[in-house]
Design goal:
Elements: E1 6-13, E2 20-21, H1 23-35, H2 44-54, H3 58-63, H4 69-82, H5 86-89, E3 93-94, H6 98-105, E4 109-115, H7 119-128, E5 137-141, H8 149-159, E6 160-167, H9 170-179, E7 182-186, E8 199-200, H10 203-208
């Protein structure tokens, strides 16, 4: 096995629902779609409750209000093309404290690793939020049946040591597990992580331990 050639403590951070809260954005895309059909849907709080209680996807939630396959396809296309548009990215809210991230970046190599369809939109949002300058590497990867984060983590592990990945989903944990890097979860995602996963309430609580 190839040994790491650079002893450089590296923290890899997920973006959506780890550094920023995207739940309102997701809801607003769905709500705007149904407004065009003059269909009233649940309010934001009940949207969250439905998804959490039923472990439901956005499509599962939207399907309650759809009457046929044509509407379903229209919804899927609308969501896919609009979810990363400026009109809806504006609903995202920072979770991470920027000054805290800045302090951590002085002693750790920070890498952003997130799933997005449009790299340029992700990078622009990162800049607008005042976060981009603190990351030495940025990866926005397209969604795929096989989690593309795994290969990036493996490559990082071969270059730097130690590598720790922080994320909010079970798929983040699985990517870290397959690549054999340390993982810590944050409880700012929609769905709870397993009890056997070490978690923090949010990313700030984790970063404070690195000061």
């Amino acid at each position: 096995m190839k040994k790491p050639f650079l002893m450089n403590p590296t923290i890899v951070l997920d973006f959506d629902d780890t550094l920023i809260d995207t739940k309102q954005r997701q809801y607003q895309v769905i709500k705007t779609f149904f407004n065009s059909y003059q269909i009233e849907i649940s309010d934001f709080e009940n949207y969250l409750k439905y998804r959490i209680l039923n472990k439901a996807s956005n499509t599962d939630f939207a399907s309650q209000y759809l009457n046929n396959e044509i509407q379903l396809e229209d919804y899927k296309n609308y969501f896919k093309t609009r979810i990363e548009s400026d009109d809806f990215l504006k609903y995202d809210q920072l979770i991470v404290e920027v000054e805290l991230l800045k302090k951590i970046s002085l002693n750790y190599k920070l890498v952003l690793l997130s799933l997005r369809t449009h790299y340029n939109q992700g990078e622009k949002q990162l800049s607008q939020l005042g976060l981009k300058e603190y990351f030495s590497e940025i990866y926005f990867l397209k969604h795929h049946e096989i989690n593309p984060k795994t290969d990036i983590l493996i490559n990082l592990k071969q270059k730097f040591y130690p590598v720790t990945f922080i994320g909010d989903t079970i798929s983040d944990y699985e990517a870290a597990n397959k690549s054999e890097v340390d993982f810590y979860g944050v409880n700012t995602g929609l769905f709870s992580l397993s009890n056997n996963i070490n978690t923090f309430e949010d990313i700030n609580q984790y970063l404070i331990t690195k000061l």
